[in-house]
Design brief:
Number of strands: 16
CATH class of the largest domain: Alpha Beta
Order of helices and strands: EEEEEEEHHEHEHEEEEEHEE
Shape: globular
Distance between the termini: 7 Å
Largest sheet: 5 strands, antiparallel
Structural class: alpha+beta
Number of helices: 5
CATH architecture of the largest domain: Roll
Radius of gyration: 18 Å
Strand order of the largest sheet: 3-6-1-16-11
Number of domains: 2
Length: 264
Amino acid sequence: MRLKITHRTEYHYDQPIRYGLQRLRLTPVSGPLQTILDWKLTVEGAQEEVRFLDQFGNQTILVSIGGALQTVSVLAEGEVETADKAGVFGQHRGFAPLWLYQQDTPLTVRGEGVAAVVASVGAGADLERLHELKDVVGKRVAYSSGQTNVATTAEQAIAAGAGVCQDHAHVFCAAARALGFPARYVSGYLLMDGVVEQVASHAWAEAHVPRLGWVAFDAANGISPDERYVTVATGRDYRDAMPISGILLGQAEERLEVRITVEQ
């Protein structure tokens, strides 16, 4: 499937910025499930400093902000050819060792809630257990926007019984690690039925299965990702893969606007 994606992020400040530094993870790379046909990143109101691959293999750009400008605009756009391989990415690659994806992070720390999720998963083959885990997470954490935020942990989402795709991915990662599987968070885009304009990117998770490698699971939608999905960044949790992150020095108040379109 050929997908056209436009992702515009605008930061508006009520006064000039002393200094800011932002990390952009908005450039997908070609791999077993996708081929980048065309991709462009345009930044206005900030200066590009350096481009590099981070420890998780994500294309990363650092930009600096400062001076009289009070608006920063970041536009990522392009076309991607995708394939449906039942979510199977394949063998691990990159700088980060597999054992790193078995470690807890502040957002995926395991407690009583994760233990209860794990206890609901029966015995069986690896893929069978992971698909069951995907379904358990979707039932334990009902999809509901406005109930959580970017700092919500897996345990908090389970306790609330509600969350968004980010929370489903965190709970899945925490529980999969408890079951003995390396797991990682995935940030990207999803072609939604009947919806072109979106207000946020999508998130799901991958678990590393012996002989198969990385296999993707989207607990929010109850499926393994297919040709409607585009991967942009991966990491141990949201903080490792978030599209834009950074620091800001000064007293300026920030207002954020995000507009995303995904269409065939």
